[in-house]
């Protein structure tokens, strides 16, 4: 028997309550599983523009399937106020970090639906950032990454 506050629980009751807590935690942090039934690493990226003259900052977090922090990055992009470039560059930096860490099977989440459509769509040969977009596509192939939209509030 185990004493918890004024309650007395048997080993069976304690085991049942612990299992209930584990199930609640698992439901709160669902795993992202692929067709081969193994977990992915998760990359969340975001950027920010602030001030006049505009300063562009970016960053991201790599987490494992249990949502525990693995690595992160952040910095400024000097000499630009182009938000599309900042969004694409942030995704590129996150994928590059994942590759450097030896991560394969990555799911990237971005709040920019425009960037996602540019990346997963056909390559536009005359786009201003065609080289950066191609680099992102190549990195995604190398580390088996997918990219998904997430509302900014959820990112």
Question: What is the topological layout?
Answer:
Blueprint: E1 2-4, E2 7-9, H1 11-28, E3 41-50, E4 55-63, E5 69-77, H2 83-100, E6 106-110, H3 113-120, H4 130-142, E7 145-149
Parallel strand pairs: 3-6, 6-7
Antiparallel strand pairs: 1-2, 3-4, 4-5
Helix pairs in contact: 2-4
Shape: elongated
Under CATH, the topology of the largest domain can be stated as: Nucleotidyltransferase, domain 5
Mean pLDDT: 81
Gyration radius over CA? 21 Å
Question: Can you write the helix and strand succession as a string?
Answer: EEHEEEHEHHE
What does this structure look like?
The protein has helices spanning 11-28, 83-100, 113-120, 130-142, and strands at 2-4, 7-9, 41-50, 55-63, 69-77, 106-110, 145-149. With 155 residues, it is of the alpha/beta class. The protein has two domains: 1-30; 31-154, Ribonuclease H-like superfamily/Ribonuclease H (Nucleotidyltransferase, domain 5, 2-Layer Sandwich). It has a five-stranded mixed beta sheet with strand order 5-4-3-6-7. The chain has a two-stranded antiparallel sheet with strand order 1-2. Strand 3 and strand 4 (55-63) form a beta hairpin. Helix 2 packs parallel to helix 4 (130-142). The termini are far apart. The model is unreliable at 31-38 (pLDDT under 50).
């Amino acid at each position: 028997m185990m004493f918890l506050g004024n309650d007395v629980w048997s080993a069976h009751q304690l085991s049942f309550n612990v299992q209930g807590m584990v199930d609640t935690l698992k439901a709160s942090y669902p795993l992202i599983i692929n067709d081969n039934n193994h977990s992915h690493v998760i990359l969340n990226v975001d950027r920010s523009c602030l001030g006049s003259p505009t300063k562009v900052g970016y960053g991201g977090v790599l987490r494992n399937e249990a949502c525990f922090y693995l690595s992160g990055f952040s910095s400024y992009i000097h000499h630009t106020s182009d938000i599309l470039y900042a969004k694409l560059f942030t995704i590129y930096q996150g994928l590059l970090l994942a590759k450097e860490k030896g991560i394969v099977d990555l799911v990237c989440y971005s709040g920019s639906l425009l960037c996602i459509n540019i990346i997963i769509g056909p390559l536009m040969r005359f786009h201003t950032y065609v080289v950066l977009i191609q680099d992102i596509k190549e990195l995604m192939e190398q580390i088996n990454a997918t990219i998904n939209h997430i509302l900014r509030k959820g990112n």
